[in-house]
Fold each of these.
Amino acid sequence: MSWQRLALCLLSCACVQSAAARHHVEQHGPQAPATERPQDEQAQCYQRFAVEDCLRDVRTRAREARDRLRAQELELRAVERRQKAAKRLRSIEAKPDATPADQEETGATQMASADPPRAQRQHAAQQGRSRAAPARASSAARADRAAKARARHAEALAAAESRRARVEKSQADAAAQGHKPPAPLPEPASSL
């Protein structure tokens, strides 16, 4: 219990520091000095001979300032989270302890939940059946799709066979009428 009080004291000190820092950020803005100064310095850089080196230095300093501000923001947020946690802990500790009658009721509730009544078992069984029904429906749908795919494949094979027979018949008719068959494709040239 004493370590909790120590934690609360430390958090209250951090609260005072974070409140001051938050007040400063609210008044001046989180990035006000980091954004105004580089523009002035960049304007001065254009009047110098080595403009690029000067601009690089200004950008580096501005980036470092932004990084410091970001670190401060993160620290403030961490302090606020700790404050909220401490406040929640205090509210939990402030709750009065449960009376013996309350403890007996919670014990009875826990015993009732350990042995579920018949209605709950029936409900669980019904849910199990309702979960199995979509699985059966999806397997039936898959079987239906597979049957349709097999039928389409068989139709495609039959169409290909009839086309092959038709081409062979037309080639045989052309040969019977004295037409020469078409010349075969030339051999591919060998590459060296």
Amino acid sequence: MEGQAEMNPDMMQKQIEQAQAQQEQQAQMEEAKNSMMKQILSTEARERLSNIQAANPKRAEQIESIIIGNARNGTIQGKVSDAQLIDLIDQFDTKKSQETTVTFKRKNLIDSDEEEDLDEMFS
């Protein structure tokens, strides 16, 4: 019964290899993204994005995704300057900050005549 509690060495080796392969794939994807960002962004824009990355990694990742998506769609042509990056970030923030509000309009089911009748009934 001890064999069930312990992992088979072959299974452990296979899991280690899978984890290493996954790490290598993530590293390749990260390198491809960085290479693409170097081609798309000017030096100043890359510096700004790295500052955003240091302060808010999740936000930087979202901005990078937008930039890469726009580049793939052909929306971005040439290098993106720092000013263009600022405009893109402002657009992103504006879209993100727009919230939908819902207001409920409740109908008054009792009109004023009925209220008087109810008052008389309970008096």
Amino acid sequence: MFCLVNNFDDWTECIMWLTIHFVGGLLTARTLAVFITVTLSTSVAAQQGPILVAGHQICMQAWLSVSLLTDALALAGQALLASSYSLGNYKQARLVIYRVIQIGLGTGISLSMILFFGFGSFSSLFSTDSEVLDVARSGLLFVAGSQPVNALAFVIDGLYYGVSDFGYAAYSMLLVGLVSSTFLLVAAPVGLPGVWAGLFIFMALRVLAGVWRLSSKSGPWDTIWYKDGSEN
């Protein structure tokens, strides 16, 4: 009925239009889940007072900026996996998955070490207030220690998109966002350590959801793992 009302030339065009909008809706919901969780963390931090939230924002800027460096790796993995998957070269697709995860973990560990030794100097670029800087530097373990987890979360996102696993990417993010947001609200009285723990849980759950999806070998992953004689 929808296709008739909108005067599409053929059913193929209509189905393509509906698919695009459905996938767009899924990714929009996923983005909202991320946005709400991160915004809630800032809201909880803001309730701690101006000095504490200023230090938190320095941590967040470093945490997000460095984490997003792995986005380039995620995009490369997405393109390579999509190419191999669409051509039916599942052996190559499996190799891409292994390599992207390995390089992502290695990149995360390297970024963690850089931040561990350089975050003190880096934070000084944002403020000269000693109290703010003390708060920011107290978040060193959060900023540096979470980088391997962040890197894996981003590269796994790229793998989702490489095989058009948009549904799982969206629904799992909604669940992860709900759990993490609930934790942030419950941990609000703890202060900034509770906020940082909530954000770490947010990224760790994304990784766990991704590992479960890849290891469960369901959906599009079934084709990748079971073809070309990879499984006996």
